[in-house]
C-alpha cells in the first residue's frame, strides 16, 4: 500500500490507513478520540475499542435507516410510546419477552387479536422496529395489500419475484387480517405466503379483529383453507388478546370530544347519603 511505503510517522499515516480500510467514521474521529484518550490516560486497547465501537455504531445506524426506508411502515411507534396502563389486560411481561427478539430464532409467529383501536398495529410496528434494530430486514403490509399485489403479479407473470418480497424479510407484519373477507383467489395467495414462511421458520406478526372461529369468512368462505392456515400459524406462535377500550376513543373522550359513557346508576336499594 502506498501509504505504508512513505516515511511519514504513524501518527500521520493513521487517518489515511483508517480511510483506506473503509473506516471513515473512525478516521474522522481519530484526532478527537486520541486527545481524549491521552487526557484520560486510557490504555491502548481501551482507545482502540472506543474508536472502533464508534465505527460499528455508525454503520448500524445507517443500516437501520436503510432498512426502515424499505420497510413500508405506516407510522413510527415504539414500545416506549405504548401506554400499558391503558390496556391492563395485556401481559406486559409477554410483550417484553417478545421484545428480546427470541421469537426470531424460534421462528415463532406473533398474533395480536382484538377490536379496533386497542393498539394492535402499534405493537406490531414496535416489534418490527425492535427486529430492525437487531439488524434484520423487516416489511409491513396489510393482508389486503399483500393479496392485491400478489394477484397483480400473477396477472403479470411475475408471482415468483413478488413472493420473494414477502419471503425475504426476517419478519413480515400482516396487518388487518379479516377486516375485509378475501375473495377466493386472494385467500389462496395469502395462504401461500403463510405456508412458505412457516416452512422457512420466518416469523409473521399478524393483527386481526376476528376470532379464530371466524377465519372461514376471512379466507373467502373456505373453512378448510382457513383451518390449514391456522394450523401453520399457531404451530409456533404467541397469541396476545387485547380486550380493552379503543385508545383513540379514550383519548378523544379525555379531550372532551366524545361524551363519556354515563356512570352506571346507583342501585335503588342504597340508603340515601347522610348529610352531616
Ligand atoms: P388497532 O391496530 O388495534 O386498530 P392502533 O394500533 O392503530 O389500533 O392504535 C390506534 C392509535 O392509538 C395509534 O395512533 C396508536 O399509536 C394509539 N394507541 C393505541 N393503543 C395505545 C396505547 N396503549 N398507548 C399509546 N398509544 C396507543
Ligand atoms: Mg390496526
Descriptive account of the structure:
It is a single chain. The protein has 276 residues and is of the alpha/beta class. It is built from 13 helices and five strands. It has helices at residues 2-5, 10-20, 24-40, 44-69, 92-99, 102-106, 120-133, 143-155, 159-167, 184-199, 215-218, 223-235, 247-254; strands at residues 109-113, 138-142, 171-177, 204-208, 237-241. Strands 2-3-4-1-5 form a five-stranded parallel beta sheet. Helix 10 (184-199) links the parallel strand 3 and strand 4 (204-208). Mean pLDDT is 90; it is low at 262-276. Residues 77, 81-83, 86-87, 114, 116-122, 207, 247-248 line the site of adenosine-5'-diphosphate.
What is the structure about, briefly put?
The protein is an alpha/beta fold.
Q: Do you know the CATH topology of the largest domain? A: Rossmann fold
CATH superfamily of the largest domain: P-loop containing nucleotide triphosphate hydrolases
- Helix and strand sequence: HHHHHHEHEHHEHEHHEH
The molecules bound to the chains, other than polymers, are: adenosine-5'-diphosphate, magnesium ion
Shape: elongated
- The percentage helix is 40-55%
Alpha-carbon Rg, integer:
26 Å
The CATH architecture category of the largest domain equals: 3-Layer(aba) Sandwich
Number of domains: 2
Helix/strand structural class: alpha/beta
Number of helices: 13
Overall pLDDT confidence? 90
Low-confidence blocks of residues: 262-276
Strand order of the largest sheet: 2-3-4-1-5
Beta-strand content bin: 5-15%
Largest sheet: 5 strands, parallel
Our measurement of the CA-to-CA distance between the termini, rounded to an integer number of angstroms, reads 95 Å
Amino acid at each position: 500500500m502506498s501509504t505504508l511505503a512513505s516515511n511519514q510517522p504513524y501518527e500521520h499515516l493513521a487517518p489515511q490507513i483508517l480511510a483506506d480500510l473503509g473506516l471513515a467514521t473512525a478516521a474522522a474521529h481519530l484526532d478527537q478520540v486520541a486527545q481524549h484518550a491521552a487526557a484520560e490516560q486510557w490504555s491502548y486497547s481501551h482507545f482502540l475499542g472506543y474508536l472502533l465501537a464508534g465505527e460499528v455504531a455508525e454503520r448500524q445506524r445507517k443500516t437501520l435507516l436503510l432498512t426502515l426506508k424499505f420497510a413500508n411502515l405506516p407510522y413510527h411507534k415504539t414500545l416506549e410510546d405504548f401506554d400499558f396502563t391503558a390496556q391492563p389486560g395485556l401481559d406486559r411481561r409477554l410483550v417484553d419477552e417478545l421484545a428480546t427478539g427470541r421469537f426470531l430464532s424460534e421462528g415463532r409467529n406473533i398474533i395480536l387479536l382484538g377490536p379496533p383501536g386497542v393498539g394492535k398495529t402499534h405493537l406490531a410496528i414496535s416489534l418490527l422496529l425492535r427486529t430492525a434494530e437487531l439488524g434484520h430486514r423487516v416489511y409491513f403490509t396489510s393482508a389486503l395489500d399483500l393479496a392485491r399485489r400478489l394477484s397483480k403479479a400473477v396477472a403479470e407473470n411475475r408471482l415468483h419475484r413478488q413472493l420473494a418480497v414477502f419471503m425475504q424479510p426476517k419478519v413480515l407484519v400482516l396487518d388487518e387480517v379479516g377486516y375485509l373477507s378475501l375473495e377466493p383467489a386472494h385467500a389462496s395467495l395469502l395462504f401461500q405466503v403463510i405456508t412458505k414462511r412457516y416452512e422457512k421458520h420466518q416469523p409473521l406478526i399478524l393483527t386481526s379483529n376476528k376470532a379464530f372461529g371466524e377465519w372461514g369468512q376471512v379466507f373467502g368462505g373456505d373453512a378448510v383453507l382457513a383451518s390449514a392456515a391456522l394450523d401453520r400459524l399457531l404451530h409456533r406462535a404467541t397469541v396476545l388478546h387485547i380486550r380493552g377500550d379503543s385508545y383513540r376513543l379514550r383519548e378523544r373522550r379525555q379531550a372532551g370530544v366524545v361524551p363519556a359513557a354515563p356512570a352506571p346508576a346507583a342501585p335503588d336499594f342504597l340508603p340515601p347519603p347522610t348529610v352531616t
